[in-house]
Amino acid sequence: MTAQLTTPHDHVTAKPRGALDQAGAAALADAVAARAAEHAAERDLARSHPADLLRELAGSGLLAVTVPQADGGSGLPLSVAGDVLRRLARGDSNLAQLVLAHFVLLDVASLASGPELRQTLHRVATGGGWIGNATAERGTAHVFDRRTSLRRDADGTATLNGRKYYATGALASSIFGVAANLDGDSAHPVIAFVRPGDAGVTIDGDWSAFGQRSTASGSVHLDDVPVPWTDVIDLGVQPADPPRSPVGAYDQLLHAAIDVGIARAALEDGAAFIRDRSRPWVESGVDRVADEQLVQHRLGRLRALVAALEALFERAGVAVDATRSAEQPDEEVLIAASLAVAEVKALAQEIAPQVASDVIELAGTSSADERHGLDRHWRNVRVHSLHDPARWKFVHLGRHLLDGTPPPKHPLI
């Protein structure tokens, strides 16, 4: 089954609100999440792309919370973007994942792009649009083995060719970033920005995973796509031992936000179902399953686990913000951020699926009816948490504890 395709827009017309403070961003994210939750189960069953919700979100100003105020954004810390995604994921984790790359690419542009491209992306964020991604590929040796190539032409332009998958947010985006190598050199990465309607760009809604069904994270085909060099972030030839980047911890914080948000949604939706719909077990001696002490005990334990996750997430956000407190952050600050994010991300990959599964067990047989959509939380977090394996995060955390070994410098830690 393919996603419902929508017409991509080359420009945006929404009028976003003014600058937000942190409390205003949180309240607005909760409001959008509440509306997203209303039909999340129906969208999940239909695999429908939430284009209307995306436009509402983009027009709200939330996608510009990290854009400097001088460029029309709110100029808030990176942790606020993480908090926004966590809140959105409580309503619909698909909506949160659809804009994750938007925040990451804005950050990459703030650190590495030229002023013209940076202004273009800021105008998208403040003008009611969003930035998608086409980074990953299938059939390669590993996640960093990318065959998509940008050929630099003599006339100051470039031509992009390749195949991408897991292209979350590219469908109907204003613009999306494509990870590629330059002139076939795998040691020379670039990010080329193209638009869904550009010549040679084809986006397929062939995403078929059992969770995160509404992200339309399918294929992008790039056939001789012309790209102005001003729309390229040239990351340069990478040394054998590159410096540690501050982007990796931020990217992982945003992924953790989705898992933590799903855990909270599963807990609250499960508790509501148990309170309002479930029948008590015949041996319990109570009239309501909510009065069974065993159920109360299990839900209380799950509540404590979710609260612990949220506290770890907040702590990780503070550590990520510290990486941007200086123009050249100290190596130890970068390491501390990576480790703090690894802690919450690794635990979330264990706890969130547990919460989403346990509430179904406690809710009973009636909760398995797909019209209730209670199962989608487990499916969504199980699929999203496959993004990068928790087992390696625990290895890096253990090594650092035992021997002080720094975590790897790649962006998936």
- Give helix % range: 40-55%
Mean pLDDT: 93
Q: What does the main sheet amount to?
A: 8 strands, mixed
Portion in beta strands: 5-15%
Can you count the beta strands?
8
Q: State the domain count.
A: 3
What's the name of the CATH homologous superfamily of the largest domain?
Answer: Butyryl-CoA Dehydrogenase, subunit A, domain 3
How would you describe this structure to a colleague?
- Strands 1, 2, 3, 4, 5, 6, 7 and 8 form an eight-stranded mixed β-sheet that branches.
- This protein has helices at residues 22-38, 40-46, 51-59, 78-91, 93-98, 100-112, 115-126, 247-276, 293-322, 331-363, 376-384, 390-403; strands at residues 131-134, 149-152, 157-164, 175-182, 185-194, 201-204, 219-228, 232-234.
- 47% of the residues lie in helices and 12% in strands.
- The chain has three domains: 22-130, Orthogonal Bundle (Butyryl-Coa Dehydrogenase, subunit A, domain 1); 149-234, Butyryl-CoA Dehydrogenase, subunit A, domain 2; 247-403, Butyryl-CoA Dehydrogenase, subunit A, domain 3 (Up-down Bundle), CATH 1.20.140.10.
- The longest helix is centred in the last third of the chain and has 33 residues, at 331-363.
- It is built from twelve helices and eight strands.
- α1 packs parallel to α4 and α6 packs antiparallel against α8 (247-276).
- It is α+β, with helices and mostly antiparallel strands.
